[in-house]
């Protein structure tokens, strides 16, 4: 009986804290709207998103974090709050080297939060053109990966563009096996980008040695095909699983 009473008290306290959090987030959002008004009155072309300001805020949050949530998790929560508040000022459009469901899109969402509009484009050079022409506010392109080193196309594009790097996102790549059916023995084929298949070769050899491996244009395309075809699976990132 005592445990039940204690649990009830804790739930009441959580409900009270949730209400306070809601009120504080709403106050922060109201402040963001006031910031937008002040900026527009001072300069109609004022930039609403300032990467250095966001980095400063997140750094301060990490330094002040008392736990038990770790610094990265706390920063992720605050980034989403900041993203939602910024969308009240002006919703940002972010070009990225697509298609949807790729790790580049995941990097864009990690850096800017989920309240932005992401726009996939088919080439790295197109990302630069979208931002240079001001169709998009920012662009996300791959610079380097641990298996293939630097991405030369991206570096070459910077040499021929007035755009500058204003932020960096480090992504730990986690591949997932996606399928409509949970039983591995029912899988007849696996779709994925060639690089992902190569990265997961040892696991596939050990757990799905007789399953056909089929190259896909992207992991997002692989996820779509796996969702449409019985007996098919895909190796892709978490973002592709949400499509």
Structural summary, described in words:
By secondary structure, the protein is an alpha/beta fold. The chain has 3 domains: 1-41 and 50-88, Chorismate Mutase Domain, subunit A; 91-173, 3-Layer(aba) Sandwich (D-Maltodextrin-Binding Protein, domain 2); 176-241, Periplasmic binding protein-like II (D-Maltodextrin-Binding Protein, domain 2, 3-Layer(aba) Sandwich). 53% of the residues lie in helices and 14% in strands. The protein has 10 helices and 9 strands. The protein has helices spanning 2-42, 51-64, 71-89, 103-112, 124-132, 152-159, 194-199, 201-207, 219-228, 238-241, and strands spanning 93-97, 117-121, 138-140, 144-145, 149-150, 176-179, 189-192, 212-215, 232-236. The strands form 3 sheets. It has a 4-stranded mixed β-sheet. It has a 3-stranded parallel β-sheet with strand order 2-1-3, with helices on both faces.
List the helices and strands and how they pair.
Layout: H1 2-42, H2 51-64, H3 71-89, E1 93-97, H4 103-112, E2 117-121, H5 124-132, E3 138-140, E4 144-145, E5 149-150, H6 152-159, E6 176-179, E7 189-192, H7 194-199, H8 201-207, E8 212-215, H9 219-228, E9 232-236, H10 238-241
Helix pairs in contact: 1-3, 2-3
């Amino acid at each position: 009986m005592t445990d039940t009473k204690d649990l009830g008290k804790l739930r009441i306290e959580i409900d009270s804290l949730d209400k306070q959090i809601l009120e504080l987030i709403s106050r922060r959002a109201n402040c963001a709207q006031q910031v937008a008004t002040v900026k527009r009155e001072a300069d109609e072309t004022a930039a609403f998103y300032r990467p250095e300001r966001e980095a400063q805020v997140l750094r301060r949050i990490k330094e002040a974090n008392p736990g038990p949530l770790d610094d990265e998790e706390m920063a992720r929560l605050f980034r989403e709050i900041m993203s939602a508040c910024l969308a009240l000022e002006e919703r940002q459009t972010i070009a990225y080297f697509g298609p949807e469901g790729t790790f580049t899109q995941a990097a864009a969402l990690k850096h800017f939060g989920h309240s932005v509009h992401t726009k996939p484009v088919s080439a790295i050079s197109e990302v630069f053109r979208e931002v240079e022409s001001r169709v998009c506010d920012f662009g996300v392109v791959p610079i380097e990966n641990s298996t293939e080193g630097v991405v030369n196309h991206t570096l070459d594009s910077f040499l021929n563009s007035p755009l500058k790097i204003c932020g960096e996102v480090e992504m730990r790549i986690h591949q997932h096996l996606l399928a409509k059916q949970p039983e591995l023995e029912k899988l007849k084929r696996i779709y994925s980008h060639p690089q992902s298949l190569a990265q997961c070769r040892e696991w596939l050899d050990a757990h799905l040695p007789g399953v056909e491996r089929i190259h896909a244009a992207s992991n997002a395309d692989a996820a779509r095909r796996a969702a449409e075809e019985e007996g098919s699976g895909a190796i892709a990132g978490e973002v592709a699983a949400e499509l």
